[in-house]
Amino acid sequence: MVAVIYPFTWQHTYIPVLPPAMIDIVCSPTPFLIGLLTSSLPLLRELPLEEVLVVDLVNNRFLRQMDDEDSILPRKLQVALEHILEQRNDLASDQDEGPPDCKHGPESSPLNEVVSEAFVRFFVEIVGHYSLFLTAGEREERTLQREAFRKAVSSKSLRRFLEVFMETQTFRGFIQERELRRQDAKGLFEVRAQEYLETLPSGEHSGVNKFLKGLGNKMKFLHKK
């Protein structure tokens, strides 16, 4: 989960495996991302949980939901992301049959790359145009023109999402890191963001999932590494 939210960084409590003796932490009113062993589930069910989403990773199912999961993300982008993830095994198979010079590292695999690219492109559709709205001040300090950044998106649902998302520590950390840099970042996200901007007519940021859908084109972009 921490990996798939790249280029963002989880800003709150993060405990990969919580010892049973400390399980009361899940009653904390602050945001957290916590892993539990299956043996701790009986203890969890006895606690007065509030807004906590519980996922059984072993059996691939929700144990507890908030019933707002389908209303948080821009609908078209959510559907496009879900569609890609449903095809992840087929897309990974297509990529694995690519050119022989497309080699994977020891911690990489076609499936990992498909899932990683899907989320990167998803976030590119949402905030990939940020670099166009970073302006330099007198001391070479860069500042995001927040309102112009949000209004540059034509999709109403995406603008509404950005209005909320831009107030989170996750987004603030993402932008602050880039405002403080003297040079533009050169990571995978920035590479994909530049590709995304080059596909758009000048001044338009549609956010209608065309770039994300392009992931299904037999993963050709991965073969260009």
From TrEMBL:
Keyword field contains Nuclease:
no
Q: Where is the UDENN domain?
A: 1-185
The protein depicted here goes by the name DENN domain-containing protein 2A-like isoform X2
On the tree of life, the source organism's domain of life is Eukaryota
User: Its Gene Ontology biological processes?
Assistant: retrograde transport, endosome to Golgi
User: What are the GO MF terms of this UniProt record?
Assistant: guanyl-nucleotide exchange factor activity
Keyword set, alphabetical order: Guanine-nucleotide releasing factor
Instruction: Give an example GO cellular component term for this record.
Output: actin cytoskeleton
Keyword Lipid biosynthesis attributed: no
What segment(s) does the record annotate as region Disordered?
90-110
**Signal peptide stretch:** none
Query: What species is given as this protein's source?
Result: Leptonychotes weddellii (Weddell seal)
